[in-house]
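task queued by scheduler; priority normal; single chain, no ligands, no partner chains; default sampling; output format set to C-alpha cells
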Amino acid sequence: VQLQASGGGLVQAGGSLRLTCAASGSAFAIYAIGWYRQAPGKQHELVAIISTGGSTNYADSVKGRFTISRDNAKNTAYLQMNSLKPEDTAVYYCAVGLVPSAGMDYWGKGTQVTVSS
C-alpha cells in the first residue's frame, strides 16, 4: 500500500483545512487508518484513528474540532480540521495498519499544516 497525504497549507487561527490520504494498492478496506502529526521539537503523536468498521478515536487536544472519515470505494481517508489553533502546526502523516496497537504497517509522506495566530 502506498499512501499520499495532501491538503496541508497555511491558514489563520480559527480556520479550517481538510487533509486527504489517497491509497494505492488493494485491500484498503481491511486497514485501520490513522492521522499522526509531528511538530518541531515535539514527539510524534496520534491525532485520530478510524477502524475498518468506522469507529473513531481522537487525541484529547483535537476532540470536537477534527473529524476523521474514510471512503473505501475511493481508497481515501480524510481529516477535517476546524477551529485550527497555532499549536496544531505540524507535519501531518497518514498511516494504515491491520493491528494499530502493534504499530502501523504503511506510512505516507507528510503534509505541512501551519496555523498563524
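post-processing summary
- The first strand starts at residue 2 and ends at 6.
- The chain has a mean pLDDT of 96.
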